[in-house]
Design goal:
mainly alpha; three-stranded mixed sheet; two-stranded antiparallel ribbon; globular
């Protein structure tokens, strides 16, 4: 099966690159090492892809070179690998999970068709496109995952491999959480915290068509929280702090609302490592270079370091229209606050966003989505809590691990603050679900530790995790059974139609100016993976130039 085989190749590719990058990373068993190394490998490959695109399009030639280089590295590294069989087994198990998630599934709608796939196509054909947001404003919202996907553009693998990375990362996180179910891992307090995260993850992220760019970002937030608890912040642990910085930066590159994670790392640096030359650490140095490269890329494509935050924009650049940036920022906030369902049509978007004019519409519409999505998890954990209070109550109410308790309280405060910011600015569930989850999970963890018997709770949560994961996998098998006659094995990348026969490149309308092709227009439909540059927004006043092989788009 194509999906299984290609997933296995990409996973091994992640692991090999990550094994170099994951030097001296702490782990409690081989499963933890494999999953963390592979996750860090995805980060390093993303960085390589981003750097290449500054100078070259990530076309098939680049993809072929990367593939050949990866094979050579694999053969050399795997020859010295001590756990060859185990690594192959875990890679194969992960690829099975990826296959279950992807087989006969859909891509994330409509964002994959609006800007995920069109941007991948754009960088397959071009070096970094200056002023790309003038073609489609959503090109300012792209994730580093698009660069990770783009590098797997070669003549050996099917093109659909570009959709694999999010599913692989989610599967690796599943494996990472499961690694803590090891009986030999004796940090019992953190186990309760991780079990709750695992249960929430199995419940929330088991449908590939719902992933988008958000699912992986939230999982990196969970990873950040876990590593934050595990790390001892002293000068001897600078390498572990470096890993935390890498995780925070990569989360930020996926979603702007994760910008608070690098800020938290900076605060930790000021408190614990200020007198230490942290840039001697490879991971921290890498993170700074990665951050600078990403911000420069943002400036080149949108005129802003962080799009569409207007104060981060460089207005002197002729490829930016600051009024358009402001309009995008206001509109994005309004739509997240249920603008289409507003009652007072006399308000403009700016007025709607202020003084809680949006609250009534949000409560009567999207708040119901939040309730529906989050309530099953809360009810399940609440019943376990009641059971533990009644039947598993421990005699000693004192919590022994004060350092752990302090860190959980810090996470509770951070996630609560982020939940409040989310609610006030962008209250869409998929934007803030990990903030809400960690807020409740931190609170429940403290209650469980104070009122419940930890050893017996571990058994309950293990059993509950097995049930939730089994249900998630069963749900996907039912989906596969229902769709195998209708859909392609791979999700369609050329159309939003679910039918097999509709998955082909569509005819787009070329838009010319003075006899020169400017862009392709997809009237009334998403661009998907077709020709680039493509937009479904009609643009009347746009100028295209080319200098040193870089395409430059700006509005008149």
């Amino acid at each position: 099966m194509q999906i299984l085989f290609n997933s296995l190749l990409v996973i091994l590719n992640f692991y090999i690159f990550g094994s170099f990058f994951a030097n001296k990373i702490s782990h409690h068993n081989i499963i933890c090492k494999f999953s963390l190394s592979s996750i860090l490998g995805a980060i390093s490959i993303s960085f390589v892809s981003l750097l290449i695109n500054f100078f070259l399009p990530i076309d098939q030639i680049i993809g072929n070179i990367f593939l050949i280089f990866s094979i050579i590295i694999f053969l050399i590294f795997f020859y010295f690998e001590k756990n060859k069989l185990k690594i192959l087994i875990y890679s194969f198990l992960t690829s099975i999970l990826v296959t279950i998630l992807i087989l006969y599934s859909n891509i994330y709608r409509p964002d994959a068709g609006l800007y995920h796939l069109p941007y991948i196509q754009l960088i397959h054909e071009n070096k970094i496109v200056l002023g790309a947001t003038n073609i489609h404003f959503r090109f300012g919202h792209i994730s580093i995952l698009q660069y990770l996907s783009a590098i797997y553009n070669n003549e050996i693998m099917p093109l659909e491999v570009i959709i694999l990375p999010p599913a692989i990362l989610v599967s690796l996180f599943f494996l990472y959480f499961l690694s803590f179910y090891d009986k030999n891992y004796n940090f019992n307090e953190i186990k309760i915290f991780i079990f709750l995260i695992a249960i929430y993850t199995f419940y929330s992220f088991n449908r590939f068509s719902n992933f988008g760019n958000d699912a992986v970002a939230h999982l990196f937030f969970f990873l950040f929280c876990i590593r934050f608890i595990q790390i001892q912040f002293d000068e001897k642990k600078i390498n572990e702090f470096g890993n935390l910085v890498v995780i925070s930066i990569f989360a930020f590159f996926q979603k702007v609302f994760m910008i608070f994670l690098p800020i938290i790392c900076f605060i930790i640096f000021l408190k614990f490592f200020f007198k230490k030359n942290v840039f001697k650490n490879t991971k921290i140095f890498f993170s700074v270079i990665f951050l600078l490269a990403w911000l420069i890329k943002n400036i080149l494509t949108s005129g802003c370091m962080i799009y569409p935050i207007s104060f981060s924009c460089i207005e002197s650049l002729n490829l930016i229209n600051i009024n358009s940036v402001t309009e995008v920022a206001i509109a994005s906030e309004s739509w997240s606050k249920d603008w289409p369902n507003r009652n007072d049509n006399s308000l403009n978007m700016m007025e709607y966003n202020t003084n809680f004019n949006w609250l009534y519409a949000w409560i009567n519409n999207h708040f119901k989505v939040v309730i529906v999505k989050f309530t099953p998890f809360l009810i399940t954990i609440f019943f376990v809590l009641i059971y533990s209070i009644i039947f598993l109550k421990k005699k000693n109410l004192e919590i022994n691990n004060k350092k752990f308790t302090k860190k959980i309280l810090i996470l509770f405060a951070i996630s609560l603050m982020l939940s409040i910011i989310w609610f006030l600015k962008f209250p869409i569930y998929r934007y803030g679900q990990s903030f809400l989850a960690v807020t409740f999970i931190s609170l429940f963890t403290l209650i469980f530790l104070r009122l419940g018997n930890i050893l017996k709770l571990k058994k309950i949560f293990t059993f509950l995790s097995i049930i939730v994961l089994t249900l998630a996998i069963t749900k996907n098998f039912i989906r596969i059974k229902d769709n195998y006659k209708i859909k392609n094995e791979w999700p369609n990348i050329y159309t939003l139609s679910e039918k097999k026969e509709d998955n082909y490149k569509k005819t787009l309308q070329p838009v010319f100016s003075n006899g020169e092709l400017i862009y392709y227009f997809s009237s009334g439909n998403e661009c998907m993976y077709n020709k680039a540059p493509c937009t479904n927004i009609s643009i009347k006043e746009i100028i295209k130039n080319e200098k040193y092989g870089y395409k430059i788009f700006r509005k008149k």
